[in-house]
Prior knowledge:
By secondary structure, this protein is an alpha/beta fold. 35% of the residues lie in helices and 13% in strands. It has 11 helices and 10 strands. It has an 8-stranded parallel sheet, with helices on one face. Strands 1-2 form a two-stranded antiparallel sheet.
Amino acid sequence: MPANLEIQALALPFCTMNFTANDHRIPLNDGNSIPIIGLGTFSEKKTKDLCTESVRIAIDVGYRHFDCALIYNNEHEVGKAIQEKIAKGKVKREDIFYCGKLWSTFFSPELVRPTLEKTLNSLQIDNIDLYIIEIPMALKPGNTFYPQDENGKWLTHDINLCDTWEVLEACKDAGLVKSLGVSNFNRKQLELILNKPGLKYKPVCNQVECHPYFTQTKLLKFCQSHDIVIVAHSPLGTNRDPLWVNLECPPLLEDPLLISLGKKYHKSPAQICLRFNIQRGIVVIPRSFNAERIKENFQVFDFSLTDEEMENIKALNKNIRFVQLLMS
């Protein structure tokens, strides 16, 4: 499909592109492209090599997109698995799409490039495909990821995100990163970057929580109007950890409609959720460290939901987040 037709398809209410397990990339506004499904790698468990093994499995299944972050403390594990598979000839470097994230304690201009270089060193590669600002709030600079005062109040940092963005643009020009994006930005925060005087590269994506209970319809429409792709984190909801999960929202995968559609298509409720966002032109990055679930989550290209079913799922929206952004 020609690139211009791909972009037109993304502008439709529901995406009409014919994705396959071997061909499911969508275009980005800078001329690059991103696989519409990836593997999330965040884990509360710090079991040795847990992430390495999950990435190995995912590559064998067919995943080529991996979403990670410096603060996950496992970039070296992801890099190890990727390098192993490249060495064995399973994939080439250009097959892999890697997303890294700039954490809030490194927004000061002088810290941006060294932080990116730390990620590159952990991965043992020369550049990454996508680098995003993880949240739109700067915290006190330093290596303490969650700086707080003696009363537990977050220690913020007064910095203009446009200054941070300019250094990221320089990193792109230097060949350290191919595409630049943001995460957890609302419309106003996106406009801050989009309206920056002398903007050289606008964000290619905005990674936000997005699933049938939190459909992000208004933000999706705004992003599409600026050729910015939505990447859905927590596309299956989350675990039920009360420390950071909104337990007022019922478990997504127990929804009767999703269960019913799953029975119709011989799919799981999770596969229905992923297919829903894919047909909206939204990139999904489900996370799992279970081999069977990693495989199952990738098996979403052999069926499609009808427009009526898409509308019915869309109507499940409760406009409630699972993930509580405690620092905002």
